[in-house]
Design brief:
Helix content is 47%, strand content 20%. The chain has seven helices and nine strands. It starts with 5 loop residues before the first helix and ends in a 23-residue tail after the last helix. The protein is elongated and about 150 Å long. Helix 3 (132-149) packs across helix 5. It is an alpha+beta fold. It has three domains: 18-72, no CATH class; 77-194, Band 7 domain (Tetrahydropterin Synthase, Chain A, 2-Layer Sandwich); 206-283, no CATH class. The longest helix has 51 residues, at 196-246. Residues 32-206 form the Band domain. It is found in: Membrane. It comes from Candidatus Magasanikbacteria bacterium RIFCSPHIGHO2_02_FULL_51_14. InterPro entries: Band_7, Band_7/SPFH_dom_sf, Prohibitin.
Amino acid sequence: MDVINPKRRYGKFGGLAGVFLVVLLVLIFGSSFWTVVEAGETGVRSFFGKVRDEEFSSGFHLKNPLERITKMNIRTQDYTMSVAQGEGERYGADAISALTKEGLAVDLDITVLYHLVEERASDVYRDIGLAYDEIVIRPQIRSVIREVIAQYEAKDIYSEKRQEAAQKIFDLLNVQLEPRGIELEDVLLRHVELPKNLAESIQQKLQAEQEAERYDFILDKEAKEAERKRVEAAGQRDAQTIISQSLTPRYLEYLYIQSLKDREGTIYVPTNPNNGLPLFRGL
């Protein structure tokens, strides 16, 4: 009868446990020697609190095991401030209230599209931190919008000059954000909310202007039609004058003869040009 040595059996299991422990330690501590930066991100490197200037772009990188990698988004992002609850970055109503040129308060919905410049990510992390949208972008949006809206009357930003105002906001905001490593892509001035009475009066005025433009178009069209008819009548008058002056008896006789050439049974008889009598052959 075979006898199993307990020490041999436990030694075998102990060896497997040792291998497993070694593999586990390699996975835990070995991962500190590399990092993977996903697409649309950049890795900011810091060593004992000191931020390095060179970022890790997307991909696999070897690193110092004591080095910390903070990943930051470099994709296109948006910051929205809206009068609608829950639509913007904050849950409550977050529209921007600004005064127009005539001192009227208007509420504006705006969306700013931007992205973090990868080569400046370490500067942004060092100087501002990860919440740069709330620390820098939001205050600059509010400041620039109030500065620009103060240059326009309410009816202008409500209608035809909204895009012009949005472009001015873009230009001024870009001047403030670009030096900080944030690149602006677009500014969307999505909605302008005026006081109710003012909005109604502007709508009525715009409707009246459209009606006036329509009537001007009709009058211009009728004036051109009248001019066309005058030119046509003058042409007909001139044509009749020319024709009446050219209708001599000889020309009328010629036209009459011309009209007979296609009539059946017509016989041409030559006449004497001196007395108009028919000429018969042999007489």
